[in-house]
Amino acid sequence: MRRWPSGAFGALVVATIAAFFIVQHLKVSLPLINGDPLPLPAAFNPIGGDPGPGEPAVCRHRQPDGRIVAVDYRRTYITFYLQNRAAHVDVQIVTGAGRVVRTLVRNYYMPVDRRNPPGAFVWNGRENDGRLAPAGTYFYRVTLLELGRQVLIDRPIAIITTAPRPAIVRLAPASVPAGGRVRITYSGAGGDRNQLLLYRGSRLVKAFAVPSRRTSAVWNGLIGGAPAAPGEYAVALRAIDAACNVGSYPRSLPPAPGQAPVLQVRQP
What we know:
This protein is mostly beta strands. It has two domains: 28-159, Immunoglobulin-like (Sandwich); 167-266, Immunoglobulin-like (Sandwich). It is 9% helix and 43% strand. The chain has one helix spanning 6-29; strands at residues 33-34, 43-44, 59-62, 68-71, 76-78, 81-82, 87-95, 100-110, 121-123, 136-144, 149-152, 157-159, 167-172, 175-177, 182-187, 193-200, 203-210, 216-219, 222-223, 226-227, 231-240, 246-249, 262-266. The longest helix is centred in the N-terminal third of the chain and has 24 residues, at 6-29. The chain is elongated.
């Protein structure tokens, strides 16, 4: 039997112990949960979440891979998997200060590297006592009970219950020759998906997106690639926020006579 020199044997023992602690440190320091656990949607309206008359029952959401999917904006959910070891978890909704608003699951067993069923961790916007949570910002928090560790999903969830209140402030000029450009100034359109709408009577003839962080946009005077026909055009604005709440100016679309600013298109 081969005998190790005492110094070499001691060094081997120390290296083995060090390797063990390094592995254990890596197990703790590596991400405890994975699977891109982002809330979907990141903003919702538990008492509405419907885009309103004339829109689909749910808004559309673009996935990271480019796919467009329908999303129910009356609730939000996350899905994830445990990366290093199986564990029982608590999943809770908390405020930014750490106050528990809702416990979604308690002592829920999750195996390693296996995602929880999509939609398993769903929040409908209610607190533990059944009351609706106030509008504001919240977070998902996952507690891994065997490890005594908590992981805060750092992507916030917003409850938004008030629809945008857009308004058209000015048309400059209010009368243009066919094909003329018009600057339309607006306010209150803080939504993510805003559109300016042009009507001839009750018929929508033009709709185009406008930036959410600006207060004006320019219409190039074209409809279907050709100069707009002479006549009167009612100008309206629709704003859809991140929680799929819809506001419009005027409030009813198509606009009733006298309810929206009118643009006069003249003969060139």
